[in-house]
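Hello,

Our lab assistant flagged a job as stuck in the queue for most of the afternoon. It eventually completed. Since we weren't sure the result was trustworthy after the delay, we are filing this so someone can double-check. Below is the sequence as submitted and the structure that was eventually returned. Let us know if re-running is recommended.
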Amino acid sequence: MVATAALTVIPYERRYRTPVLDLIRHTYLRHTHFDWYDADEWLDNIGGVTRLAWRSGHLAGVMGASHPFNGAAWVRVACVSEGSPENEVIGALWESVRAGLRGGGASSCWMLALDPWVESHVAAMGMSPSEMLVALRYGSSTALAAAPTVPDLSLEPGDLRDVAAMAAIDQQAFIPPFQMTYPDVRHAYRHSTTSTVARLDGEMVGYQISTRHGSTGHLARLAVLPEMQGRGIGGALVREVLAAFRRRQVEVVTVNTQGSNLRSQTVYQAYGFQRSGHDLPMFSVGLAH
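-- returned structure --
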């Protein structure tokens, strides 16, 4: 048996940017869940808890998790170089990332299983199924439902000055780990195709941010203050999104939500969205000391 040099796991530094990006872009053993960020933006501006595994001067793997927000973090990237032993590399990286998250105050870490190879490692990481990401689709052949009647509700285009209020609403409407930080909402807004804010008596009570990729639109985020839910505000925002995309000749609109969020699924289905069959499992692990 030929002895193999031990792995060395170190924190990410900017001087390693090029080999890290090369690995992320070229290995087929790749998990990237950056949301609105791409790999460059993540490394340069976000970083989180990111670790690199080296062996004999060769980058064997990368794993990065977001900074904890209200105790919850997400594994955003996990890559292994082709030819490296997956279990060894993922195990060493996760041990270091987990320690870093604990040191940063995280109480849980989550991962969206986008690829089968990643899902094969979650059990060894101590993760278990915790939620489903439900995917829905709206086709242009579906009739556009009538707008709900909500007295004194106004819908206006979102503005960069609205982002702080959007983030505040988001963090009330969702629980960890599904809340968005102010920088996340700002980044999403800056990359949006259309954004709408809902106001009652001049006060913002909800918002939506949507993106477009060719002939497909995506309702990326929708949130309504908890005390205002059930009044038709979410439905008014959904219809506004669909009408805006229809004016742009967008043929298909997609949206994702949590499997446990039955209220949002009911709203989307009322406006013509149907399950697409592309649901994805989410896994999590507690990080209590």
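-- support follow-up --
The delay was a queue issue, not a problem with the job. The result is valid. Residues 134-281 form a domain with the Aminopeptidase fold (CATH 3.40.630.30). The chain is about 30% helix and 35% strand.
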